[in-house]
Automatic annotation (TrEMBL):
Its main location: membrane. Pfam families: UPF0220. It comes from Ailuropoda melanoleuca. The chain crosses the membrane at residues 26-49, 55-74, 95-120, 126-144. It is found in: Membrane. This is Transmembrane protein 50A. GO terms for cellular component: membrane. The keyword Ribosomal protein does not apply. Belongs to the UPF0220 family. Keywords: Membrane, Transmembrane, Transmembrane helix. It is a multi-pass membrane protein.
């Protein structure tokens, strides 16, 4: 099977360096939208409480809050590069990110419990609402992303300043 895939060299044809974050953001948005679309579909098809308990929507709401929390923190804030002031600085950004990931994992685990404990173990005739709750949270969870630095930023970092009176720039340090 790997011999078949060796002939496919898509990464050489397309420059993903500058477009990587844009494509990842679009993919995350599509996954988030798909998750909510699935749960809205289940809520419309099964509107009664006997078929689909509406309290199960809390799991998706918590996953959405986690999605917003995690995507609100940049990598620079976590590393301490671009965020030094505020309530707790770098430590506060890391705590915020940790809480966001705890909420995301918790909602994913809770959605599995809803699927198996509320629908599969009780041998209900209609299982789709439980599957919808799980897939909603799975799609939101897989839509979580942290933006990576661009290829240029990762390979070469230079700090420079202008020399007074000459207009020339001098490199202070280079990585």
């Amino acid at each position: 099977m790997s011999g078949f895939l060796e002939g496919l060299r898509c990464s050489e044809c397309i420059d993903w360096g500058e477009k990587r974050n844009t494509i990842a953001s679009i993919a995350a948005g599509v996954l988030f939208f798909t998750g909510w679309w699935i749960i809205i579909d289940a809520a419309v098809i099964y509107p009664t409480m006997e078929e689909f308990n509406h309290s199960y929507h809390a799991c998706g709401v918590i996953a959405t809050i986690a999605f917003l929390m995690i995507n609100a923190v940049s990598n620079g804030q976590v590393r301490g590069d671009s965020y030094s002031e505020g309530c707790l600085g770098q430590t506060g950004a890391r705590i915020w990110l940790f809480i966001g990931f705890m909420l995301a994992f918790g909602s994913l685990i809770a959605s599995m419990w809803i699927l198996f404990g509320g629908y599969v173990a009780k041998e209900k005739a209609i299982v789709y609402p439980g599957i919808a709750v799980f897939f909603q949270n799975a799609f939101i969870f897989f839509g979580l992303r942290k933006p990576a630095p661009s290829q240029q930023q990762a390979q070469h970092v230079t700090c420079s300043h202008s020399l007074p009176g000459t207009g020339a720039r001098q490199a202070l340090w280079t990585e």
